[in-house]
Design brief:
The protein is an alpha/beta fold. The chain is built from 19 helices and 15 strands. The protein binds iron/sulfur cluster (SF4) (2 copies). The site of one iron/sulfur cluster (SF4) has 15 residues, from helix 15 and helix 16.
Length: 425
């Protein structure tokens, strides 16, 4: 979707709501982004690179689009994770329903995710979608290797550029400013093959995100953020208790937002249970995972929530949260869920791994268990465990317990490590 299609040139925010059906408009009028937006426009550099005015958020055809930090891109507040994407028919329907941001990676589905996005470009036009695809920094990576990877992605996408090119799963903050990485980015940007730099981080967000923000090179970051990272206002903490201690994820979002770095949330539905089990749990008519999406979207510093939508029912359920406020009933449901499952939910903070004297990759193994338990991605979990175990055997564990003392959330790290290793080894 072209930026110009989304910008409302009328003087007031009310006009955003003009074209909406009355019921939808009534609910969207209370949307937290709109409530927090100081006005319909801010003076800033837009995605086209020209100095001008750009709105913080707009509504079009029932979808809310939020500004992705200094990129100026306006992206749907529900966006699509490409690991995997749905089949082509459903994918195209989701685009028709207003989703315009797709999260991809060279590694997803052997490149078929990028090929499918390429077919969407052909069908809907290149301007209809904003794409973030990523390269991996494998052992002994080179500038030429990064460029080759990005160019292979462009060929699969059948396009000459992506909006955001990112590094997949940054773990070592030093990689952010590595001269091989930055030389590759500079060349690709100079050739117009990517407009902005981004990244995801899974295992060491607390180490990676501050450096990504401070170095000033990255325009957006994708952060794991979900209701298990609860740390609300002081009043909420008094009311519900802070079950998890201070995760600090919210602080990372604040930090990025303060420098106008766009923030997208991922792993929002990382849950203490499978998605289909959660669908049956209702409170006040809202399914628990819908409440999780609303909880994340309530944070106005986020541009979007990346979610996987694989069937019609998930499409309807996820899109139903667009513009809907988190209710007090939703909040009670979420806190009860967190209370029940907090000690089995890994936050991917990486602190256990950093504390291990034997360099056992406890956090990576713990993440594999989440793929297995919550996402039912046994094959992906198995592959990840194999890769992890190749880097260091769990049998080297000396049972010192340092990992568990380091875990701020009280997880049984040793038990999780052994279970992951035994399940898939
Ligand atoms: S108990 Fe094992 S895995 Fe945990 S820190 Fe000690 S050596 Fe590492
Ligand atoms: S097990 Fe605990 S310390 Fe390790 S990554 Fe998960 S939440 Fe962090």
């Amino acid at each position: 979707m072209a930026l110009s299609d989304l910008i409302d040139h009328s003087p007031g925010r009310r006009s955003f709501l003009k074209g909406l059906a009355a019921g939808t408009a009534a609910s969207l009028a209370f949307h937290p982004v709109l409530a927090a937006c100081p006005g319909p426009r801010l003076s800033m550099k837009s995605a086209t690179g020209t100095e001008g005015e750009c709105p913080q958020s707009v509504i079009k055809d029932g979808m809310v689009y939020r500004r992705l930090g200094r990129t100026g891109l306006l992206i749907s507040e529900i966006s699509l994770g490409g690991s995997p994407l749905p089949d082509e028919r459903l994918f195209f329907r989701l685009i028709e329903r207003g989703i315009n941001y797709i999260d991809a990676s060279e590694s997803y589905e052997n490149g078929n995710v990028e090929r499918l996005i390429g077919r969407a470009f052909k069908t809907f036009g290149r301007d209809k979608l904003h794409v973030h695809t990523r390269f991996h920094l494998r052992k002994s990576f080179t500038e030429a290797g990064i460029i080759a990877s990005a160019e292979a992605s462009l060929r699969r996408l059948d396009t000459d550029h992506v909006e955001v090119l990112g590094i997949h799963g940054v773990e070592d903050p030093a990689h952010l400013t590595d001269e091989r990485v930055q030389a590759a980015f500079e060349k690709l940007k100079a050739q117009g093959k990517c407009l902005f730099r981004g990244l995801t981080s899974h295992s060491n967000q607390h180490g990676v995100i501050p450096k990504a923000v401070e170095c000033g090179l990255y325009d957006m970051v994708q952060i794991g953020y979900n209701v298990f990272d609860i740390l609300e206002t002081e009043k909420d903490v008094r009311t519900y208790g802070d079950y998890l201690g201070e995760s600090g994820i919210r602080k990372l979002i604040d930090l990025a937002h303060g420098k106008d770095v766009g923030v997208i949330a991922m792993k929002v539905l990382k849950v203490g249970g499978r998605r289909q089990d959660l669908a049956a749990r209702k409170d006040g008519g809202a399914a628990l995972f819908q409440a999780m999406l609303k909880w994340a979207l309530e944070n106005v510093k986020l541009a979007s929530v990346v979610t996987e939508i694989l069937n019609e029912s998930q499409m309807e359920q996820d899109l139903a949260v667009v513009g809907r406020p988190l209710t007090s009933g939703d909040r009670r449901t979420l806190y009860a869920h967190v209370a029940a499952h907090a000690r089995e939910t890994c936050h991917f903070c990486g602190l256990c791994q950093a504390a291990c004297p034997r360099s056992i990759r406890t956090a990576d193994l713990s993440r594999s268990l989440v793929y297995f338990d919550s996402y039912e991605k046994a094959e992906r979990a198995r592959a990840q465990v194999r890769e992890t175990l190749a880097a260091g055997a769990v049998s080297a564990c000396e049972d010192c317990g340092a990992c568990e003392r380091a875990c701020p959330y009280g997880l049984s790290v040793r038990e999780r490590t052994r279970r992951a290793a035994s399940l898939f080894a």
